[in-house]
């Protein structure tokens, strides 16, 4: 527990400092986290991080995340071409490697590239648009994680998804939502009269979505880890696991908020 607290405090402070600074430093941090998360996802499927196929995907992740601040106009123009080119490139590796790198693995890496890169690109985008919005999303996710953990430990009796994540409970999930709504109200009061989403009702609706789908994102990653029989996605954060373990909720939440129109 001590190691977990120390790692969480130091890593969290560093992340928040660059989030506050924004601009290129935060974009580079987001790209680094995205690439590491992608490599962790690849290694779960026994794909070497140093293989040409995986490195190709890592490069694509970095380009997609950073493309928003390098040149949004050019990036939006080449975006569809990048998707097509990457799909063709991955399946071409089947021939080059004489099917050592299979079509199934091509599909896995292709999905992994966009599953990881799009949320972090959105994170960079919303930070460029609004520090308050970026902080709100991140704080609600962290509050949800903490609420689920502490309420679950204290009151948890009924399992939420025992075949996927045996330690999660329904009581913890409910506690996480309540904590998220309370912190959302406190956050809005702190930042003042400017309402993040136009009304208090919308603020609570967005906080509810973040909390619920953040928990779903956590369960999705747990399901992936259980399928590949791994405990943590990585070891880069002592006491916490990998980057994917720390950002699984955000990876799920940001695309949802984008689809629903809450972020642009």
From TrEMBL:
Membrane topology type, per the record?
Multi-pass membrane protein
Q: Which family does it belong to?
A: Belongs to the CDS family.
A GO MF annotation of the entry reads: nucleotidyltransferase activity
PROSITE patterns (UniProt xref): CDS
* PANTHER family with a match to the protein in the record: PHOSPHATIDATE CYTIDYLYLTRANSFERASE (PTHR46382)
What's its EC?
Answer: 2.7.7.41
Please list the coiled coil stretches. Answer: none
Q: What class of enzyme is it?
A: transferase
Supply the source organism for this entry: Sporolactobacillus shoreicorticis
Species lineage, top-down?
A: Bacteria, Bacillati, Bacillota, Bacilli, Bacillales
Q: What is this protein called?
A: Phosphatidate cytidylyltransferase
